[in-house]
Design a protein that fits this description.
By secondary structure, the chain is α+β, with helices and mostly antiparallel strands. 44% of the residues lie in helices and 15% in strands.
Length: 260
């Protein structure tokens, strides 16, 4: 209908304003080198938006999966706090645990406004966990030729919405958050997007972001990249019930080695 069409166009405009210029070398997970003599990725210093060139010379792509997981473990609760704030201003919701759902389609999602003031309801949210190492290793070798610094979704969360308008509101909140650096964004809600057409019915907006604040700087994880997905209830319900759409998406990505 017309309402949905104009909502999609508005979403597309917001994505267009946010979309960063991804460097030729791609987006990498970084660690602080002990000295500037440590070899840089691809023979050059990677551009980092919130660093001066001098500071950037001390940061190198991660080569250790253990180090990447150490970063993600410290980063994960900070990301969870962030998505709660964004959901709060956009009527977002989170996936309910199977025990909370009890076979009811109406209980598939928990509105954050409802959960925020009720500890029992909050405990019923099924937060996304850190990516399993086995899957991370598989993705690193099948998609990135063993380069673990290209794994940008070890820490991840998804916010769900009843309609595109509220999804767009959340995207705007992320965009205007001064602590957020958007490294990459993919609008799989756009029917004209080539990746959307390739993967069929899989639909969401995916962002790779860094959280840069005093806490992440103190922990030296302000260069860690995570994944945030914004999805609609209607698509997520089909995915959750069938439990096949995402598996199909992952299978296709592994076959062609697509970076997504």
């Amino acid at each position: 209908n017309d309402k949905a069409y104009y909502a999609l166009q508005e979403l597309k405009e917001i994505v267009g304003k946010i979309t960063p210029k991804v460097p030729d070398a791609g987006v990498h997970q970084l660690h602080k080198a002990r000295n500037v003599d440590e070899p840089a990725a691809h023979g050059k210093v990677l551009p980092i938006p919130f660093f001066s060139m001098r500071e950037a010379q001390l940061w190198r792509p991660i080569t250790s999966l253990d180090q990447l997981y150490a970063q993600a473990s410290a980063f994960h609760p900070i990301l969870r706090s962030k998505v709660q704030g964004w959901a709060d201003v956009s009527q977002g919701s989170f996936l309910a645990s199977p025990r909370y759902r009890l076979g009811s389609e109406e209980n598939m999602f928990i509105d954050w406004h409802q959960a925020r003031g009720d500890a029992k309801v909050r405990d019923s949210i099924e937060w996304a966990q850190i990516k399993k190492p086995q899957r991370a290793i598989e993705k690193a070798f099948q998609t990135y030729r063993g380069d673990v610094s290209r794994l940008l979704d070890i820490s991840r969360q998804t916010i769900y919405f009843a309609d595109i308008e509220h999804l767009s509101t959340c995207l705007g909140a992320i965009w205007h958050d001064e602590e957020i650096v958007v490294e990459r964004i993919k609008n799989r809600m756009d029917p004209e997007d080539s990746v959307t057409r390739m993967y069929g019915s899989y639909r969401d907006v995916m962002l790779n972001i860094r959280i840069v604040n005093d806490k992440t700087k103190d922990l030296h994880i302000h260069t860690h990249v995570c994944e945030v997905r914004l999805a609609l209830h209607c698509f997520a319900e089909v995915l959750i019930k069938a439990n096949t759409t995402h598996a199909h998406y992952v299978g296709l990505r592994n076959q062609i080695g697509h970076d997504s």
